[in-house]
Write a structure and sequence with these properties.
641 residues, alpha/beta, Rossmann fold, 4 domains, five-stranded parallel sheet, 10 strands, elongated
Length: 641
């Protein structure tokens, strides 16, 4: 048996935990790199100033910390430079090939400049400078040689700063060459001299970020007073990783929220790994995946909010159009039971945005996204789906609404999509209306094949009202919706009363709306000021959007007082369940509020039209009447759009 050390943990357990934390951090670096926000030409360029290891001095430089920071910055594709040799950048370093051979050529980008880069993308002056303080750097700065050397560099700069950059560099190069053989000379002192100039003579911010690698306050560098931030760190890898996240937030201020999500991800996963002893590799990987998924979803929610708030929907739509223009189809609400009285449900829309908006991995690949919106009939699933489709019609290359109430209706809906597909991308025979079943099979197959075409990845399919359970003996017309999911691309939104369908992908159970949203829905359809009786009716209707829409529409069309409607409401439920021809109707799947408001509207229709009465009495209860406020208002006498 292995002897326990490090408290109650064995050496192998300690090594396993170290390996787990390393894997966690590397996974997060991969995720940050995949966002592609750190290596853009508009992202800040970075230079790292530090004292290299010098064993002759016998004083710690903690250069291993800097080497790790450089490695991690490189992993996320930051535009990072140092005096030793420039790391790969999207733009070239000033000085061309000499930059890799001459330390001073690298260091010149620390000088203040009126332009950060020239027209060719060459970096003339970096945006951010990370100064890594250590005991060795402090020792260098306090040497008698240092102050005279920095003063000499400043004197040259003041003398020739109004002349060309070539003249300036030539004079500084001459000074460095005359001083480099001095006993107190170190290349990092030139960088400190340039930082003093940057702080004193720069016109657009110095961008200096000090990091103390040994916990000191770095007061030995007087030009760092009132600098951007003073980060302190112990010299452990765990603390260095935490420092890295803080550093990123200081450099990439516009990405503060993104970095914060993955910083929290690291801390949360770290705590879970710390608290759970003897974690098997599969469980360890599951913890990492769970925490990273949370961070990704949180960031996506922020991104989609930004798209809305900053008006980026149009920009994203144009970008999609430029890449996938050949697959774009005209947006149409044909067949959709759409309502112009929709009341926004921001958190529910945000969930759809996170799961369904077109996304690609760093290699430009895309995978199919499926989201199942399930819940009671009348809860607002269809209208939420339609509102999402309307809002992002320019983001998706195509939006097709499919009637999922039965397999035949679904197939007919798919066939109708054919006429909207651009000419030449599908057989012409399939673009014509079909009537017999053989032709229908062909058209359905052609449409699904088109949706699976390479490059046609940004469409949205809405399977609406997939309510018959083929696995549990649903009514005639039940089917397996998976048979109609094309390829491994695009976005699929399914609305259903069947919670079982949640297993097909991401999902959300749509629940009753809160009191404020309920009041807004009722007010929108009612069109009058609410009074005490209205508030009582809102409570009775219990946050179900269809019941709210039905009741408000009825009141508006009939002019009935709310108090009278409440009395009808309280008395009609028993009449409804006793109705002789309603047995087996899907109406019985609804809660009392929907059923009661429906039967009140039913009585209004009965009085208005005997034909309507007989049609409905025969059991032709269109599910759109039951699941759509628009259709409900139509039943109450309002023309829906």
């Amino acid at each position: 048996m292995e002897a326990p050390i490090f408290g109650s943990r064995s050496l192998s357990e300690v090594k396993a935990r170290i390996k787990q934390r390393m894997a966690l951090f590397n996974k997060i670096l991969e995720q940050l790199e995949a966002t592609d926000v750190f290596g853009r030409s508009t992202s800040p360029s970075i230079f790292i100033v530090y004292a290299h290891d010098n064993h002759e001095e016998g004083i710690a430089a903690d250069a291993w910390c800097v080497h790790n920071l450089i490695k991690w910055l490189k992993a996320i594709r930051s535009r990072v430079l140092s005096d030793k040799s420039p790391l790969p950048l999207w733009s070239t370093r000033e000085g061309g090939a000499a930059a890799a051979q001459n330390i001073l050529s690298n260091q010149f980008c620390l000088l203040p400049a009126s332009r950060r880069s020239d027209g060719a993308g060459t970096i003339n002056s970096v945006d951010k400078v990370i100064v890594c303080g250590s005991r060795l750097l402090e020792r260098y700065y306090e040497d008698d040689f240092t102050s005279s050397y920095i003063d000499a560099v400043e004197a040259v700069y003041v003398e020739v700063q109004q002349q060309t950059r070539d003249v300036l560099q030539s004079r500084i190069r001459h000074l460095v060459e005359t001083k480099c053989d001095s006993s107190g000379f170190h290349h990092v002192l030139t960088e400190l001299a340039f930082l003093k100039l940057r702080r004193s003579y720069g016109h657009d911010g110095h961008g200096i970020v000090p990091i103390s690698l040994n916990g000191g306050d770095m007061k030995y560098l007087p030009f760092l007073q009132n600098s951007d931030l003073r980060l302190k760190s112990s010299v452990t890898t765990a603390d260095l990783r935490r420092l890295f996240f803080k550093l990123l937030q200081q450099i990439y201020t516009e990405e503060h929220a993104l970095i914060g999500q993955f910083k929290d991800c690291y801390e949360n996963a770290h705590k879970r790994l710390q608290n759970e002893a003897g974690i098997a590799p599969p469980d360890f990987q599951m913890i990492i995946d769970q925490e990273i998924s949370k961070a990704q979803n949180a960031w996506l929610q922020l991104q989609t909010a930004a798209i809305r708030d900053r008006g980026w929907e149009k920009e994203l739509g144009h970008r999609t159009e430029s890449h996938y223009k050949s697959f774009r189809t005209l947006f149409s609400l044909e067949g959709m039971p759409a309502s112009n009285h929709f009341v926004d449900r921001p958190s529910d829309i945000a969930d759809l945005e996170q799961r369904l908006l077109p996304q690609r991995d760093p290699h430009g690949q895309t995978r199919r996204r499926i989201f199942v919106l399930y819940g009671l009939g009348g809860i607002g699933k269809t209208q939420l789906a339609i509102h999402f489709a309307r809002r992002y019609k320019d983001t998706f290359s195509s939006v097709f609404w499919l009637d999922g109430r039965s397999e035949d209706r679904l197939r007919q809906s798919i066939a109708r999509c054919a006429s909207r597909i651009p000419g030449g991308q599908i057989a012409e025979r399939s673009r014509r209306r079909v009537s017999d079943s053989d032709d229908l099979d062909t058209v359905v197959a052609d449409v699904l094949a088109w949706l699976a075409s390479p490059g046609n990845t940004d469409w949205l399919l809405i399977f609406d009202n997939v309510d018959q359970d083929d696995e549990q003996g649903g009514m005639t017309g039940a089917y397996d919706v998976r048979r109609y999911l094309p390829g491994d691309q695009g976005s699929v939104l399914i609305t259903s009363r069947l919670s079982r369908l949640a297993q097909l992908g991401d999902s959300k159970q749509l629940r009753k709306v809160d009191k404020d949203v309920a009041r807004a829905i009722f007010q929108t359809w009612y069109g009058r000021q609410l009074d005490t009786d209205s508030e009582e009716l809102l409570s009775l209707l219990d946050g179900l959007p269809l019941a709210l829409a039905q009741a408000a529409s009825y009141l508006r069309e009939t002019g009935l007082e709310c108090s009278t409607y409440i009395e009808l409401y309280r008395n009609k439920w028993d009449d409804l369940v006793k109705f002789p021809n309603i047995s087996g109707s899907p109406l019985l799947n609804y809660e009392r509020s929907i059923g009661t408001t429906w039967t009140i509207s039913f009585k209004a229709i009965e009085a208005k039209s005997l034909d309507d009465h007989w049609a409905l009495s025969a059991g032709e209860y269109d599910s759109r009447l039951l699941d759509s406020p628009a259709a409900a208002s139509t039943a109450c006498g309002e023309s829906a759009t």
